[in-house]
Amino acid sequence: RVTMRELARALAVFSLLGGFSPLAGQTTGQFLQSHLKARQLVAEAVAAEGGAAALGALKQLEYKADGSIDNATQSFDPQAKTHPEPFKASSIFDYAGNRFYSLVETAPPAMTAVQSPAFYKNGIFSFVNGAQRQYTSNPIADPNPNFDANARYVPALVLKRVMRNIRSVNFVGEESIRGHLVDVVEFSWDLVSRYRMDLDKVDHTLRDIRVLGNDPLTGDDEIIIEYTGQQTVAGLRFPTRAVSYRHGDRFIDIALSDIQVNHPPDPSKFEIPAGVVESPPSTAVLATQRLDGNLYEVSGIGPGANYRSQFLDLGDAVAVFEAPLGFAPSQQVVGEIRKTLGDKPIKYVVLSHYHDDHAGGVGAYVELGATLVTTKGNEDILTRYARLGSVLTGAAPHPALQPRFLDVTGSTLELVGTGDRKLIVYRIPDVGHVKDLLAVYDPATRTMVDADLFTPFFAASSPAYRRFAAWLQSSEAPEVVRIAGVHHAPMTKQEFLDLVSGGQK
Hints:
The protein is α+β, with helices and mostly antiparallel strands. 22% of the residues lie in helices and 35% in strands. A 14-stranded mixed sheet has the order 7-8-9-10-11-14-15-1-2-3-4-5-6-16. The chain has a 7-stranded mixed sheet with strand order 17-18-19-20-21-22-23. The radius of gyration is 25 Å and the shape is globular. The protein starts with a helix and ends with a helix. Residues 1-21 have low confidence and may be disordered.
């Protein structure tokens, strides 16, 4: 005899394993029919890609991606139409050994890519940092999110995931997509993401996949990966091209080549290279420390805990540097400021530049009445960031919100507090990463705070870092003893200069 509690527990387990309630308006019988129809459509798609036997026998896959990335929120100039930047990468999927390898060979403008692979083995994800010859290892959940992100560009790997979660499939209906009639099948990629596949009604191939995602320019939006072309390797059909769309615009456009199926992967790619030392992983817990005087830093921001935000007690108010990632992380930083300084008003937020990973959280500060310190060309996109909301992230939209701006029109701008407390904003020219880049200087502690003028992710010889080093040694710069940053731990000026000069050897 089954009790109501046991039945509720069984239904909860079924949900975790991929069972879902009927769609709105469906009876249980209709839901079953939708599920059975979806299973049949998936079987036809598997056959079109090479068959269940070939797909089931796929234990290793390696491919190279060569194309471009066009990201409006990471471009050089917010006022100009973005220009695609080169993108080149390679990936290895080892289902038999539960391993994954990825190497991105390109880098943003004014940065220099280094051979910095990331790989997953034995439940440990390792990121090898070629810039400082370090690696960081973290135990992570299976399935590996990096594995999943790369797998979505290959229909065969998408279908392997669908087969793994076959009980989650449901037939949605028929649509016309770019001139082709398709059957739409919904499925669960994991316990969070619900995807839709568009399967061609004529040849049953997987034309694209779609998922809801949060976008810094539009809020909640549909992310699409479209597959075109055909090449056959080991009896499996692969596209020659995969294109990802965000906010309706082309985002990533890659050609897939050098596909290898069931070739044993090079074991050395899953090992830490010789001469590389371990760096402890970033703490996942927000932490605030006093750098010196009235200058503080919040570390551990974001899902990867690899962003920092600095703030200065101006006496009668607070000035903050950066609003990383989004609304929720910035709210957390506000909480840290409150714990440290009480209810002093946050008067200024200085944005180094408009890229969404540095300014996406401005709405949390604008809500509190803070003035955004930036350059004139950034105002429109920062306003969009501040107004956007997201059902997916829980941030409420504020369509009428109008930020107050204080524009840096010259090479410097002083933010004055009480007594002798002040912060000086510097515009550093000729940094190839972005058109206008701001840094802040605390004269009381002789500390310069930067964003993207140094990170541990790219080679120390990157042009942006060299430009910062040259500026620090010029007559334009103040007397600097310490450098703090959004992407790096505090260091002395000399330590930074030694890193950059060593990277040029």
